[in-house]
Amino acid sequence: MATDVATTTLGIDHRKLGMWTFLGSEFLFFGAFVSAYLLYLDTTAGGPGVEIFDIPFTSISSFVLLMSSLTMVLAHHAHTKGDLRRMRLWILATAGQGAVFLGGQVFEFNVFFREGLELSTSPFATSFYILTGFHGLHVFVGILLLGSLYVLSLTGKIKANQDVKTEMIGLYWHFVDIIWVVIFTVVYLIPEIAVLD
Amino acid sequence: MSSTQTPEQQADQGHDNHPTPRQYVNIALVLAVLTALEVSTYFFEFGAIAIPLLVVLMVVKFLYVAGWFMHLKFDSPIYSRLMYTGLAFALVLYAVMAVVTLFDHAPMI
Amino acid sequence: MSSTTEQTGYAGRPRQRDGFVGWITTTDHKKIGVMYFITVLVFFALGGIESGFIRWQLAQAEQNVLTEEIYNQFFTMHGITMVFLVVMPLSAAFFNYLIPLMIGARDVAFPRLNAFSYWVYLFGGIFLYSSFALGGAPNGSWVGYAPLSTDAVSNMAFYAVGLNILGVSSLAAAVNFIVTILNMRAPGMTFMRMPVFVWMALVTNFLLLFALPIIAVALFMLNVDAVFGGQFFEPATGGDPILYQHLFWLFGHPEVYIMILPAMGIISEILPVNSRKPLFGYAAVVFAGAAIGFIGFGVWAHHMFTSAIGPVARSAFALSTMFIAVPTGIKIFNWVFTMWGGKLRFNTPMLFSIGFVSMFTIGGLSGVTHAIVPHNAQQHDTYYVVAHFHYVLFGGALFGLIAGIYFWFPKVTGKMMDEKLGKWHFWTWLAGFNLTFGPMHMSGLLGQPRRTAVLPGELGSTVELYNLLSSLGFVVLFGSALVFLYNLIDSTRNGEASGDDPWDARTLEWITPSPTPFENFHVVPTITHRDEFWHRKYAEDEAGRAIPVPAGAAEDPDAGAEHDEHIHMPDPSYWPLVQTLGFFPFGYGLVYGNFLLIGLGLAWLVIGMYGWIIEPVAEGDDDEPDDAEQVAPTATAGAH
What we know:
Chain A is mainly alpha-helical.
């Protein structure tokens, strides 16, 4: 619509409000998976447990995802300045980092799988794979969105003054990132340290 | 319908106090340092403070990304309310659920 | 103003607003509301037929009308249908039709997303019912407790996937309505001037927003366990079935309020109009509604008093459960005091509203007895529980929603429903309802277990008598429903013309002509009062009595308002329908563990999304037009 934000009750854009409303509910999605995981930390049914994690490797991919938030916000910044060329560059960088993270996850899953941690090995295995896989699905959707943004800005469908679109996708991307901030600490680091002690 | 808007609304749209790229990079540097500190708990012995420290670092990183990259610090407060309401619901409900499951092994009535 | 329908010719978007294509491509909240309503009638008939077989089977002890397997499928599908395919979408029908009208908007915030919600609901329902043809419907009851539900024998994969599809619909609708209510109110419509129905809609949609993700996760875990070899709830490897119960009821209890709050909002509109008084204690009703929503998240474990949760949790949840009766009680007193001293008109909507208050009070009281843990242990899984929740969901939610149907029928069609048939419907409905569910209190306390295919003869002739009465009650209800259906169809065709404001109503939706014109409001009204429409019609004399304002004498508050030269309404679109068809391959893929189908479904959904993004949107562009293309300020209906 001709979203003249001045005509809305709160003076804000519908789509941005809708995105934030949705993100508010997303916490309850991830919260349920995280609580199931924490509940089943020790329920390994004789299979591998948290000691299987490769913290240095996961640290690197976590760092890549964290830095993709920087490039994302720079893309949005470029768009607010009407600089579509630079915006596309940063979008590409963000999607690339997301792809690296996703590749890391696929690699990690493969290694764990070969070390005997299958989906049906134990409640621990199921909850780990489903939690991180669900997050990976979010990253994948984010990459699709970034790709669409890139292509649509090339075709002229997204114009220089429509930075709210980049902002929305950015919000989603940052959200996926902060969820990983939590997962990295709660799912990987703390259990691993607790086991080492 | 522009004649019906309130002055606050007009003030609200005019805001363009978003940070500069320089500030974004600085925030990212802070985040990088915090992440390095997090990872170092794996390589070095932090003893009893390791887990509290990790939780604090996680919260700080969370707030930085939400506040700066997601512009919550600079935007309409309703966005913060929506997000933190969801977060609070998730934390409280699942915490209570976890506590209740701890009573699993209590004697049955 | 009159140009609204002409300016819609854009390549790639359907132009037609009427006929079959007009319906399936509509993005108009009123049409979508009507589509929800008609679909609900179909599912209500299916759920009713299932319950009829249940009552037939239980009319006498030791009967074998149905095999046990079919019986289990029928009671499971009856529960799922009535909760997820009837009461929730019927509330959504009212949200759709009424929220924009009541807040002075021309549509919802995201019209295409609104159409998407409807189609997902329809296809989710069809998907669930397709299980009858594909090896049997789910038979593990509507709560789907693991580990029975993870076993293939229970067919519960259809339940897990089907309800998740319906959840997508409700979540999208929740975001849509929340944004609409927060951000599309007419000028002057502050929160405390909103009709109570809109308030209850807001609370309900926040409940949906925060409760649906929990059930989505629980069902997804169930899906993974049942189809893909997951171990979430598998006791053999250490999985905890109690976790499923927690997650289910974390959603399940708010769900109870999701079903009842819209009906409470409806009767909070009908009682004042037909008592010719403002609602007693508006603020108290609103805050009690919000409090119910909030506390509703803190009582879930009272459904699990007989599961392994320990005495401390039982005591805590017993207390919180008793506490939630307080805001509910506040509301009941407010409704009673609204009627107190009013000039009551006992028309059909009013009768159903009073029926709601009284039946819901009975259901609420039997609910409080569940809060007492030892009592609960006695009643658990007996027909006493069945009686309780039918009193709140049938006697409560459904009575309120039916009151709403009679009340707003003239708004939608411009015709009145027949009063005489309406009263017949009400009295037979009330009698049939009490005859069906009243005796269940007794048979439950005498020990009749629920979800049991055969009524055991050893329970004795008293229980058998109660069951026979229940089954007779069903016959009465069935006849009553036929009266209602006839009234509905006949009044649509031959009903008496209602005029714009048949009830002398109070709220904004009656300010526009009935049936509602396409653009809802010719001029968006400026709001200066709660019950705006009433205040435009009546002034007060010195004694505080309402006196009608002579037509034309009052200053028209909108007279000075800028006339919207050029109302821009959302365009129709094929994409919500086309995209949601992708849920079929996706859903069947998840049920059968077929990754090819899952991939096909996902690809379909993504491609549909692209169609949605790429299709042209009105006025040269979707959002902020380039400055060069800037058109004159337009009144807008919503984002596309």
